[in-house]
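WARN retry 2 of 3 for item q-0093 after timeout on previous attempt; input resubmitted unchanged.
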Amino acid sequence: MNETRYHTETLSKYSFLVTGGAGFIGSNLVGYLLKHGAKKVRVLDNLATGSLSNLLEFKDHPAFEFLEGDIRTLDICVAAMEGMDYVSHQAALGSVPRSIDDPATSNEVNVTGFLNMLLAQNASKSVKRMVYAASSSTYGDSKSLPKVEDTIGKPISPYAVTKLVNEIYADVFYKTYGTPTIGLRYFNVFGPKQSPKGAYAAVIPLFMQALKDNVPPTINGDGEQTRDFTFVENAVQANVRAFFASEAAVNEVFNVAYGERISLNTLWKELERISGKELNAIYGPPRKG
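OK item q-0093 returned
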């Protein structure tokens, strides 16, 4: 991981803030920036879903800084951006089922937190651009394939609503205040540092843990639903390229995807084949959202 350079700029000239940097995607981005010589990498995370274990390898790095705090507090966002050149906003409650169970908290973190980041960016004298995590959930009930950035449907979960609102706020702030942002619509990211634990874990780490434990996984629905699974290094690459992209990319959103669909049944059978194990998956009711 992180061996390939996705930038042409000299990172040693720049300081980066990664919100949600103790999480899955954020910590992988932190690793890339430090490996390639960033002047400073500051992480802002409240550790609600992230883990300090994802950052242990960086704790003694002279360019690394950790700030424990919550994006729901504007003053913390302002302080975190002080002296930063670029911001990668990864902090969010990123689960559809979690948003269905607790839509109010998802809104507070994902919408109020995002608004605070925009306000802090406007107040900053140093930040050149913020790249933020958008989501493929924004496509909602659209049946169109392939998924094209300009064609979206109606959101089908509270989480999707929050991510769509982020895009709307970013657009309004750019047109009203000139706030430069770029959104990245992630599609089912997987890879190192993705936790299989908890009620809201993603499907690939859940499948991998099931194989490790020799326990059949539960698949919601008939398993024929398809996903575009995207390796986390692609998400890292997208963030790095967005930091330094031309002005034409500002106030746009871009898909971050592999470009091919696979059903959950096919995914599970392939993992069984690779592992040499045969565990009959259990099928449960379809998941909402």
